[in-house]
Amino acid sequence: MHANPKQTIIEMLENHSPKAIESFCNARFQNNLAFFANYPNLFQALQAPAKEYQLYIGKEGVNILNFKQNVLMYAVIEGKSTMLDVHKNCAYNPPINEKWNRIVGEKPSLIGEEFPYSQILVNGILNYAFQNNGIADYHLPSDFLPSLNLFGLGGGIFLQILIENYATIHNFFIFEESLDLFRIACFFVDFPLLFSKVQNKAGYIFLESIMKKEYIQNFFLTRKISTSLIRFELMLYQTPTTQNARDIVFEVHSQTLRGWGTFEDEMLGIKNKLSFPIHKMLIQPKRVNAPICVVANGPSLDFLLPFIKKNQNKMIIFSCGTALKPLLNNGIKPDFQIEIERHNYLGEVLKSAPLDDIPLIAASVLDKTAKELAKELYLFERDGSSAANLNAPSFRVQFTAPLVGNAGAALASYLGSDVILCGLDCGYKKGFSKHAKNSYYGEEEKKIPEYAYPVTGNFSDDIYSDALFSLSKAALEETFNALKPFHILNLNDGARINGAQPTHHEEFELKTINKKTALKQIKSLFKNPQKTGFYTKETEKYAFEILAFKNKMHDIFKIQVLSKQDLFVALDKAYGVIAKESLSNPFISILFGGTLSHFLYTIAFCSLHLPYNNMQHLWEKSGELYLIAMDKMIKSLRETLFEKYGTPIA
């Protein structure tokens, strides 16, 4: 009996002799080998001898043999291998199968009047879905799978069953801890067919380890809308390696879900910047011969205050945000207060601390009231905000998000010889509150949030993180890797920060410095930007660029969307326009990108709650709302810049 290549994998493995199955598996392996020929390293590795696992085909059925331990991966019960049954169970209907972990994004809610432009888009499409038979449960076409994240293929038979049963898989991410196990999957899985069913080449395979988080970030960032909405996750077998891979993916994906922003918030930053004259701007950083102590408001600050007080004449002290009050309460006057927030409550916070005559180093987007409090004001352009990119400044401080402590650490890394981290915990510690005592936040619960997860501690084993702390830690690591201060000491009992040396404050002595000279040198780096040619682009040049961006986005809404599969492709294309714009014109992409991302996500959410597959009417309505809101946003921007510069932009 010969195998029919058109048979399903289940029919093949259930109805044929071991010899026929072996012939089928060898043919599939050769087919995959030809497919992977364009990837020389993988192509060579797949042909190398097995080190631990090999495929077993016998009268019991198929299985995987660990020949080092001489054990089979799948149990044999009453003379029959359970491998096929395990994979059949895993492949059954992932949207409802309890073996799959379904990660669904947050339900969008109606937006308030304080966000008038975002409201047009988000509320408009939510109301449309509600009025067009929207349902509470989500609805996916029976032949479509969205984002798949697979940790361990264990032979991959379940994946082949999915490939055969589903016409489209929007994207997938595979991690297999052993090259041997991936090689075995190549005997069953038709990888050319898998990739042909994936939209926009959105398939990633990781073998043995996840060496670079950037690749995972790229996977999620380039599919930010579709992966944020829903993804199906399967861990076929659990080992420390697969669990670690899953934890990394969870952490990176959590990071990509934060910080979308809105047009309204970005406009507030622009208005704040334009409402106050800029006389002293950080034009070009230069290191001084002094360590800078970055003080944030984490719980570790409480036991580090004596160290800071003792050594305040041997280092420059950057107080970040709400760390100011605990410092002052302990008789420590920082050399600079660092602030980045654009919201209007900051002035009151600084007034109550009080800021008094402490020099303020602040992002240009800072609220006017807060700027007016400072007797010495030094500004910098903070990368990642639309306002900072207005008129294309020749220098922007990078790595300043998501927390003010990140901005302090970034500035210290640009300006100091060494960086000392105090109170920058990047995590929660069991038995401690989130912030230092006697700070702006008052008494806090000593409780780890339910959504927090354990991370490697700097000194302790009981440190937990969340998406925000994780993002902050990742940004710090990027900062230190890029800017390379001579020494970076992490004195905190918080999260381990790669690139920062875990150090107890009793373990080192600071040398004497000429602090007065160092402070003078830092202040001298802030100059009048108008006199230095700091801003390199005329405002009116944005007129045609914004119009071009508007039209590129509108072109996506002209695409025919006859199914949810088509919609997911169109949404990723629309987000791709925003992402591409960020490379050439971050002012435009950041200004409009947040609100438009919220809109795209809400469209995707609404599509899953409509009990039919043709999304053309939803997409056409989305295009109408897009034009209405975009015209109003452009008008608002034109009025703001016209008022300041006397030149309309569109």
Describe this structure in words.
With 650 residues, the chain is of the alpha/beta class. The protein has 25 helices and 23 strands. The strands form six sheets. Strands 16-15-14-13-12-17-21-22 form an eight-stranded parallel beta sheet. It has a five-stranded mixed beta sheet with strand order 6-10-7-8-9. A hairpin with a 2-residue loop joins strand 1 (53-58) and strand 2 (61-66). Helix 18 (404-415) runs parallel beside helix 19 (467-483) and helix 22 (542-556) runs antiparallel to helix 23 (564-584). 45% of the residues are buried. The model has no long low-confidence stretch (mean pLDDT 91).
Keyword list:
650 residues, alpha/beta, five-stranded mixed β-sheet, 25 helices
Oligomeric status of the shown chains?
single chain
Poorly predicted parts: none
Largest sheet: 8 strands, parallel
Structural class: alpha/beta
Measured on Cα atoms, how large is the radius of gyration? 28 Å
First-residue to last-residue Cα separation: 73 Å
**Count of helical regions:** 25
Mean pLDDT: 91
Please state roughly what percent of the residues sit in beta strands, choosing from under 5%, 5-15%, 15-25%, 25-35%, 35-45% or over 45%.
5-15%
Sheet with the most strands: spatial strand order:
16-15-14-13-12-17-21-22
- Strand tally is 23
User: Can you give the helix content as a percent range?
Assistant: 40-55%
- The general outline is globular
